[in-house]
Amino acid sequence: MSDQATKHQLFQQLKTLQHQISTIIRGKPTQIRDCVACLIAGGHLLIEDLPGVGKTTLAHTLSVSMGLRFSRVQFTSDLMPSDLLGVSVYERERGGFAFHPGPVFAQVLLADEINRAGPKTQSALLEAMEENQVSVDGQTHALPQPFFVIATQNPSEQLGTYPLPESQLDRFLMCISLGYPDEKAERELLMGQDSREAIRALTAVMQPGELLAAQAAVREIHAAPALLDYLQALLAATRSGQWFVEGLSPRAGLGVLRAARARALLDERDYVSPDDVQAILPQTIAHRLRPKAGSGRGAREQVRAMIESIPIP
């Protein structure tokens, strides 16, 4: 198959993927697009919203539609790191310890209500998210490929929640919010099939190998020097002290570029435009930043105001 035919097939798969997810998560095309962009960019996804608006349903639908092995962990205050990573157990017949892997050994780990667990358990995910491996009792164990964490988070003002540390927030490529459905979408939900039954009826429109190929295609998307100048100007603005308490790390800058490349691929382009950067910037950086006191804006509104102040080269 020619390169052109391969690209066309990939574009069609990504369109079909978004359409299938939209049959379950109704009226949220922008959020679905962001989720797919995050995963084909190889990033982890944080979904922050009120209970009951479809966060868990979205994560499950994404994994089924991409043909990925799915594992769900309900994070609670008494969840221990070993409950997540696994444990070494002495087996008498073998005369030694054997490692029993935990639910993190999946291709998609849904960390449901991640901010209801204590900091020690939250931190247990850091190595998995950054290195695609975990260390237990001095032994390193590789995770399956591809590997994604999709975490859901309740608003921090709700009872029984712990704020995620900055080091962990920085590991999430994107943070999105679903919000309430519009009137038309809500009526379709009320009249439609139960979402759990609908998910069981789904078939995978991509396979893990095809997803890895999509990730490789994202890395090939061209970013011109002028585009990199624009991205660096945005990064410098976050560090200027005018908008935020602290600026973005180099890792965050690399994440923005990966997400912009993924968005360009979803638009069937082989280059990144400033529009791609602007479109994904709030979802990619707002959760990593704290607005300066007295700004009167939330982090996302502050990011949008900053974008308007930076000229496109």
Explain what you see.
The chain is an alpha/beta fold and about 325 residues long. It folds into two domains: about 5-215, P-loop containing nucleotide triphosphate hydrolases (Rossmann fold); about 220-310, Orthogonal Bundle (Helicase, Ruva Protein, domain 3), CATH 1.10.8. It has helices at about 5-25, 30-40, 55-65, 80-85, 120-125, 125-130, 165-170, 185-190, 195-200, 210-220, 225-240, 250-265, 275-285, 300-310, and strands at about 45-50, 70-75, 85-90, 95-100, 110, 135, 140, 150-155, 170-175. Strand 3 and strand 4 (about 95-100) form a beta hairpin. Helix 1 packs antiparallel against helix 3, helix 10 crosses helix 12 (about 250-265) and helix 12 (about 250-265) packs across helix 13.
Summarize the structure.
By secondary structure, the chain is an alpha/beta fold.
List keywords for this structure.
313 residues, two-stranded antiparallel ribbon, five-stranded parallel sheet, alpha/beta, 14 helices, Rossmann fold, Helicase, Ruva Protein, domain 3
